């Protein structure tokens, strides 16, 4: 193997020993923390069999956990589709050469990214009725879906914009030299390459969207967290065990979603080459340019 094919120096005996010692110490610390948590739960009586046996009953799963899970998946699936559409429209709008399209698109994206999602969901449900003077409020499902769409769609708009801008300028210049219009360059050259670069960030945001459905609990939307922290503990008095089980359900769903998305990403990378750099999700709200491509 040539020296140029190695990205880092092969660790020597001392480095391997140091890495093994650090790994062992880390494992000991993790096991120690786990022991303290389990011991604390036991001392507080949270490991008592009567608190966990409800989760061995099929009616608890079919009548409550699966019902809440269905509400979570319904809201997440619809919001994901709408957020992707929102993100594509306003992401491309921020790339427009026309100021009357680019500026309002940027203002909308920054506005909804700046509002905490919990407040956004609350205002959508209660604010409409309050401002209009009518007593009929927005249904909880609609409020959750609209809130998730506006917030996550704004984040996806930045991801789409960054993905298109990550493609080297020479790609678009080559398209223009062949006589393509801007729409053709975007559709045939930029978007196919940008999609592969954007996939990890899109997957990450979809996982965030799925977890954010739990915020519907504040407006009594019947989703997984509502059943796990309210209805099941009300029946069996097992708040901590219920929270642990619901957390494991969330983890399982997100692992499945990440696995499927990673498979799709690998297939996309094998079938399509791209010169774009990998895009990461925006971490904070900020003012950024939205110039045309």
Automatic annotation (TrEMBL):
It is a multi-pass membrane protein. PROSITE patterns: ABC_TM1 (PS50928). SUPFAM superfamilies: MetI-like. The chain crosses the membrane at residues 21-38, 65-93, 114-134, 140-164, 185-208, 239-261. Its main location: membrane. It is found in: Cell membrane. Gene3D superfamilies: MetI-like (1.10.3720.10). Keywords: Cell membrane, Membrane, Transmembrane, Transmembrane helix, Transport. It holds the Pfam family BPD_transp_1. The keyword Membrane applies. Residues 69-257 form the ABC transmembrane type-1 domain. The keyword Membrane applies. InterPro entries: AA_ABC_transptr_permease_3TM (IPR010065), ArtM/GltK/GlnP/TcyL/YhdX-like (IPR043429), MetI-like (IPR000515), MetI-like_sf (IPR035906). Belongs to the binding-protein-dependent transport system permease family. NCBIfam families: HEQRo_perm_3TM. This is Amino acid ABC transporter permease. It comes from Sphaerisporangium corydalis.
């Amino acid at each position: 193997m040539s020296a140029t094919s190695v990205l880092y120096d092969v660790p020597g005996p001392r480095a391997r020993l140091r890495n093994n010692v650090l790994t062992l110490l880390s494992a000991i610390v993790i096991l120690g923390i786990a022991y303290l948590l389990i011991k604390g739960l036991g001392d507080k009586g949270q490991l008592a069999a009567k608190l966990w046996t409800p989760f061995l009953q099929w009616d608890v799963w079919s009548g409550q956990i699966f019902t809440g899970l269905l509400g979570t998946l319904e809201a997440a699936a619809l919001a994901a589709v709408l957020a992707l559409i929102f993100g594509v429209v306003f992401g491309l709008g921020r790339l427009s050469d026309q100021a009357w399209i680019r500026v309002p698109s940027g203002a909308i994206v920054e506005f909804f990214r700046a509002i905490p999602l919990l407040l956004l969901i609350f205002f959508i449900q209660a604010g409409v009725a309050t401002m209009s003077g009518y007593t009929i409020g927005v249904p909880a499902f609609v409020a959750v879906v609209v809130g998730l769409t506006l917030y996550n769609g704004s984040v996806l708009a930045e991801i789409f914009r960054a993905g298109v801008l990550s493609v080297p300028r020479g790609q678009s210049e080559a398209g223009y030299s062949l006589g393509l219009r801007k729409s053709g360059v975007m559709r045939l050259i930029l978007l196919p390459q940008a999609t592969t670069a954007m996939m990890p960030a899109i997957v990450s945001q979809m996982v965030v969207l799925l977890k954010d459905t739990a915020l519907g609990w504040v407006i009594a939307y019947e989703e997984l967290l509502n059943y796990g922290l309210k209805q099941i503990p009300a029946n069996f008095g097992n708040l901590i065990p219920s929270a642990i089980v619901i957390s494991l359900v969330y983890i399982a769903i997100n692992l499945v979603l990440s696995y499927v998305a990673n498979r799709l990403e690998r297939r996309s990378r094998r079938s399509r080459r791209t010169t774009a750099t990998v895009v990461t999700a925006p971490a904070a709200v900020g003012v950024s340019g939205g110039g045309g491509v």
